[in-house]
Amino acid sequence: MQPKWFAPHVAYSIAKYGMSLCVLGMAEEFCKEGIAVNALWPLTTIDTAAVRNLLGGVGMAQSSRTPEVLADAAYAIFCRPSRECTGNFFIDEEVLRAEGVTDFSGYAAGASDGPYFMDFFVPDAAAQRTPTKLIRPA
Q: Residue ranges of the domains in the chain?
């Protein structure tokens, strides 16, 4: 809970915060049944229609990653034992690095492998843990 996450976009931040509360609540609610509930957030911006049309155009899209980075990270999380892996807030790159992935160039939406625009809601500590070259969005 830091003002910087809410100041420029209160409604969107409230929605993200609400989703986070759902993860915590449902993880606890369903843990006895062995149902895992986790959150997965991107480290970098993802080349989507929203990025191309609303947030930064082609320039930002070219300095983003493809959606496959999230798909691969989600798959890695789904393969973990549900009774041992629930109530977590994961960052895609951290998940994949824990799985042994070191080459992220295949996820580059543009011609190069970075630097990438950091996603808008990445905790400072997560950004500092990654060796990926990041550009903080304005």
A: 9-123
How many Cβ atoms sit within 10 Å of the Cβ of residue 134? 20
Tell me the CATH class for 9-123. alpha beta
Q: Over the stretch 77-107, which tens digit does the pLDDT of each residue have?
A: 999 999 999 999 999 999 999 999 999 999 9
**Residues carrying an active site annotation:** 12
What pLDDT, on a 0 to 100 scale, did the predictor assign at position 102?
Answer: 93
Q: What is the rounded CA–CA span in Å between residue 36 and residue 14?
A: 23
Give the up-direction half-sphere exposure of residue 77: CA atoms within 13 A in the CB hemisphere. Answer: 24
For residues 60 and 51, the answer to whether their CB atoms sit within 8 Å is yes
The encoded tokens of residue 126 equal: 């997560």
Q: Phi-psi region for residue 114, left (φ > 0), alpha (ψ -120 to 50) or beta?
A: left
